[in-house]
Amino acid sequence: MSFIRMDAGTDEDWVRLERATDEWQAGLAQRIKAMLLQLKQQDDEMAIDQLEHSLQTATRALRGGASEEWVVAALCHDIGTGISRDNHAAIAAEIMKPYVSGEVYEVVRSHQEFQRAHYHENHGKSLGARRLYQKETWYRSAVRFSDDWDQLSFDPAYETLSLDDFLPMVERVFAPERRYAQAAAGGARGGSRFRRLLIKAKKTISRSKRGESPL
Ligand SMILES: [Fe+2]
Predict the structure, then answer these.
(1) Burial profile 55-91: b = 16 or more Cβ within 10 angstroms, e = fewer
(2) Cα of 120 from ligand 1 centre, angstroms
(3) DSSP assignment, residue 188?
(4) Has this prediction a pTM greater than 0.90?
(5) pLDDT of residue 190
(6) By the number of CB atoms within 10 A of the CB, which of 68, 91, 141, 165 ranks highest?
(7) Domains detected in the chain
(8) For residues 166 and 126, which has the higher predicted lDDT (pLDDT)?
(9) How far does the centroid of ligand 1 lie from the alpha carbon of residue 24, in Å?
(10) pLDDT digits (tens, 9 = 90+) for 141-163
């Protein structure tokens, strides 16, 4: 890249930058694995550590007949806790966004609010924050995610699958060719204006190389 301020970048610079971004993004599955392994350090004095909780949530999703995308979402839903407990749901959802359906994205993004119905102070009371989402098309999926998979998964006696069992699924869901494919199919809101502009810039360069008008 030749520019030292962004507004001086040429079309070629931005296409090269996009290529570098594509190459970096292709390593996402490996970074997800590293983030999952970090969860092992979080035991929170629970019966199992956070990695085991994530594996157990994914195992329950798998045994419940969920699709691979949901299983990987269950595996990764707490991946952001290593950075921030407060915002961990949004962190996981935004990482997954370009690779999953809009429904999976919304459920991961809001799972903390659905879990609140299971917090001690809410036992036997209202549905709490999840009530806000009752009219959403993905509401039933979010209830299932929280009630059948997430909140049950703190059990040291449960036969939980290993991280190695799930890694091929992680690689498939975060495969480079799936990036933005979900958005194109009407999935998560992953198609950015930035990317559309880059595609337009690439076309403009191709046209000018062929001697055509860039318009
Ligand atoms: Fe969880």
Answers:
(1) bbbbbbbbeeebeebbbbbbbbbbbbbbeeeeebbeb
(2) 15
(3) S
(4) no
(5) 45
(6) 91
(7) 6-209 (1.10.3210.10)
(8) 166
(9) 28
(10) 999 999 999 999 999 999 999 99
